[in-house]
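Letters spell out the chain; backbone shape is given numerically. Take this protein:
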Amino acid sequence: MDYVAALVPPVVMAAFFIGLVVTIVKSQGGPNKTKEDAIVDAAVGSVGSPRQSSAGDSD
């Protein structure tokens, strides 16, 4: 019975991962695509912008 206990967690994790991938693939495109793209573009733009260092900083 130890082999069953050893195999259950990876099988459960694999099932959830497959479900996650299927959900992601199914949700691509559709009517919300432009809204989702705009959100991602805004997030990337805010993260990608260079930060200004103050005059007192020394590197």
